[in-house]
């Protein structure tokens, strides 16, 4: 619960956990034995202890009843209630009073983290100015570190008056720095600084400490520093929060990197870059960090945060890599007690370090955008690790982005990815089988599978005729996929009225045939439907449970496909979408509209047909995540805004800085469609909104086509 200006950002409010006590049963179902849980000072006692609301403590009791030992977190990237701050004199005694009051009410608690990541919080709040009190000062930085560590010592003393055997689990980030020779001294300073909070708590900061002169020069008195030697409070467990971007490379050659990395230190150019993005930097290594911490303190360790923002396969690969590093450390005799799958309900707006409220969400083991929270593939992996057994997801066979050569930064515009089939030669690697090799959607899946390092095989009709059972069986036996994505089908809505037999063969018989074969072989299936399964008589966007009522042949073929697929394979994933646009083909409506308007030609577009546009890259990424999670049933995936075709063209023109004056909104009847169209076929979802809003998608679309124009 961190503060930016006068706003508090509470993750438990944003992810809905504050009104969902049944989440505790979900957590327990994963096999978790210990859980870091928020009992936040700012949340329970924002106006002082006299007015504290202790009802939240019932959650701690519920955890205990569920067989989970809670680690009570009292301040997490916070600065306390409004009357104090990280640099205020009353911060430490105030937190101690709160901690003592909590311990008195819950004397059965045994583990506490009074202040999460004191060094990291101080950096963000008093060196970088991102969080309250928004300072950029070494003097306030060292004051904030000292204040938080003093608060931890006093809080544990207050807790132990009620719970003598209470444990301190002290967390912080442990990223290492390296760099070019001109910044060698700076890298050494940063590396010494990362230990400061733990060193203070262990009573190891004296006059010979490498940071002594820095602390004194920054305004701390000898008495303040040496107080920790007289009042040591060593952690019972050191919690290492480790992220792939924690390791940093300091480079004086700023021109090698994107402009956002360029800066200065002491008047010299500096690029502070993630080491993983630099070929000459030492590769990040959690095992090396565990060795460092063990050698320094000889205190038991835990990996207390192991989250990775990104796509699901890399979340799985990262957690598996962290787990194996912890196992390797234990094999060396290092006392590693736990790995924490931070965070269970995901996180909001961490791509801006929680300085903005844009709703950017990264799921964890549960995706809290669904009601109730939906389990992801990470949850299944946690159950396997808790048993314990090796996780089995096929995508663990691939390397995460932090291990692939494509991670390195290069100047200039990159080349488009080739669309060749990627089928690994390694024995036992299962691909995703993708139909529709010549279509927009099939090629988009191939492109994004390649980008995400998901083994795939993109097949043509000659290799797999989806409506021919023998052809389907042969393809599945030859490629042994773990999943099949049906991106093929009959897409010409008007021509379907004249050729219903072919339309039904490709759109209904084909998916049903795939479903039968996938059911027999235990293969996951993703297939696509359309907004045209609806009649258009609704006054608000359709959701997944609304009754279908197609008014044209194409819509009927899709509605029949849905029913037949789910009859053969209830575990199938069916995605309804509409009004595709994307940066990789020249035929979609938005591309054609921009070209027509840019050429100064009139553009006649229906003003009375309402749809919900879908940006193809967003659609494909979300579909792959759902497929990896084993999601089933019907999902509506669009960029979430109901607009007419004319409004879509106008918005795209504004985003693309194209003159919209030649846009001519007309009645649909004037377009002389052969197939009737529903007047209103916009889609909404009662399961979860997974795609960004249309304005965001259009902005990225315009940027993409400017960087890589499509040839006429």
Q: What is the CATH class of the largest domain?
A: Alpha Beta
Question: Which radius of gyration do the C-alpha atoms yield?
Answer: 28 Å
Percent in helix: 25-40%
Question: What's the CATH architecture name of the largest domain?
Answer: Alpha-Beta Barrel
Overall average residue pLDDT: 94
Q: Can you put this structure into words, describing what you see?
A:
- The protein has 712 residues and is of the alpha/beta class.
- The chain has three domains: 359 residues, Glycosidases (TIM Barrel, Alpha-Beta Barrel), CATH 3.20.20.80; 34 residues, no CATH class; 288 residues, NAD(P)-binding Rossmann-like Domain (Rossmann fold, 3-Layer(aba) Sandwich).
- Helices cover 36% and strands 16% of the residues.
- It contains 23 helices and 29 strands.
- The strands form nine sheets. The protein has a seven-stranded parallel beta sheet. A six-stranded parallel beta sheet has the order 19-18-20-21-22-27, with helices on both faces. Strands 7-9-11-10 form a four-stranded mixed beta sheet, covered by helices on one side.
- Helix 16 packs across helix 18.
- The longest helix is centred in the first third of the chain and has 23 residues.
- The radius of gyration is 28 Å and the shape is elongated.
- The two termini are 51 Å apart.
């Amino acid at each position: 619960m961190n503060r930016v200006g006068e706003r508090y950002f509470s993750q438990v409010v944003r992810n809905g956990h504050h009104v969902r006590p049944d989440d505790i049963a979900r957590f327990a179902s994963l096999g978790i034995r210990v859980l870091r849980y928020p009992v936040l000072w700012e949340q329970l006692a924002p106006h002082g202890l006299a007015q504290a609301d202790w009802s939240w403590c019932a959650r701690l009791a519920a955890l205990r009843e569920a067989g989970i030992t809670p680690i009570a977190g009292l301040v997490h990237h916070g600065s306390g209630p409004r009357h104090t701050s990280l640099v205020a004199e009353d911060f430490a005694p105030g937190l101690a009073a709160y901690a003592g009051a909590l311990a008195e009410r819950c004397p059965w608690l045994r583990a506490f983290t009074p202040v999460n990541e004191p060094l990291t919080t101080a950096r963000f709040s008093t060196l970088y100015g991102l969080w309250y009190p928004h300072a950029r000062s070494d003097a306030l930085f060292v004051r904030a570190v000292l204040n938080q560590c003093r608060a931890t010592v006093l809080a544990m003393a207050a807790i132990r008056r009620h719970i003598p055997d209470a444990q301190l689990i002290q967390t912080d980030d442990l990223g290492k720095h390296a760099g070019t020779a001109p910044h060698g001294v700076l890298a050494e300073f940063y590396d010494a600084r990362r230990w400061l909070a733990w060193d203070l708590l262990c009573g190891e900061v004296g006059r010979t400490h490498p940071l002594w002169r820095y602390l004194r020069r920054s305004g701390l008195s000898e008495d303040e520093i040496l107080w920790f030697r007289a009042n040591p409070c060593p952690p019972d467990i050191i919690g290492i929060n480790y992220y792939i971007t924690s390791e940093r490379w300091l480079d004086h050659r700023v021109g090698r990197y994107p402009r956002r990395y360029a800066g200065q230190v002491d008047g010299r150019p500096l690029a502070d870059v993630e080491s993983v993005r630099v070929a000459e930097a030492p590769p990040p290594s959690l095992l090396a960090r565990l060795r460092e911490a063990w050698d320094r303190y000889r205190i038991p360790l835990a990996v207390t945060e192991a989250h990775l923002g990104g796509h699901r396969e890399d979340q799985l690969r990262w957690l598996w890599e962290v787990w194996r590093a912890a196992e390797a450390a234990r094999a060396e005799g290092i006392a590693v007690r736990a790995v924490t799958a931070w965070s269970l309900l995901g996180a909001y707006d961490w791509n801006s370090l929680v300085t903005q409220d844009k709703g950017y969400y990264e799921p964890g083991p549960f995706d809290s955008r669904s009601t109730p929270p939906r389990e992801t593939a990470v949850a299944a992996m946690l159950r396997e690790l808790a048993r314990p057994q090796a996780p089995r997801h096929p995508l663990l066979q691939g390397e995460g982005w932090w291990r692939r050569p494509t991670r390195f930064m290069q100047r200039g515009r990159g080349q488009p990815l080739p669309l060749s089939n990627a089928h690994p030669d390694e024995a036992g690697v299962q691909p995703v089988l993708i139909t529709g090799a010549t279509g927009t959607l099939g090629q988009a899946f191939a492109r994004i599978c390649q980008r995400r390092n998901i083994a795939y095989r993109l097949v043509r009709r000659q290799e797999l005729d989806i409506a021919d059972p023998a052809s389907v069986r042969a393809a599945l036996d030859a490629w042994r996929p773990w999943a099949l994505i049906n991106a093929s089908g009959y897409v010409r809505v008007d021509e379907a009225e004249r050729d219903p037999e072919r339309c039904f063969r490709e759109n209904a018989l084909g998916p049903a045939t795939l479903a039968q074969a996938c059911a027999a072989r235990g293969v996951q299936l993703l297939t696509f439907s359309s907004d045209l399964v609806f009649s258009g008589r609704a006054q608000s966007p359709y959701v997944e449970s609304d009754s279908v009522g197609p008014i044209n042949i194409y819509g009927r073929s899709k509605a029949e496909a849905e029913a037949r697929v789910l009859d053969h394979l209830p575990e199938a994933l069916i995605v309804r979408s509409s009004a595709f646009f994307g940066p990789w083909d020249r035929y979609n409506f938005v591309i054609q509209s921009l070209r027509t308007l840019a050429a100064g030609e009139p553009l006649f577009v229906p003003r009375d047909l309402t749809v919900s546009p879908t940006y193809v890259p967003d659609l494909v990424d979300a579909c792959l995540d759902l497929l990896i999670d084993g999601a089933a049933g019907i999902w509506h995936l669009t960029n979430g805004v109901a607009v007419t075709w004319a409004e879509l063209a106008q918005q795209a023109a504004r985003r693309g800085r194209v003159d919209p004056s030649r846009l001519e909104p007309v009645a649909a009847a004037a377009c002389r469609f052969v197939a009737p169209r529903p007047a209103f076929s916009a889609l909404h979802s009662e399961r979860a909104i997974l795609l960004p809003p249309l304005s965001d998608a259009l902005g990225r679309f315009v940027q993409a086509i400017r960087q890589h124009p499509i040839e006429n």
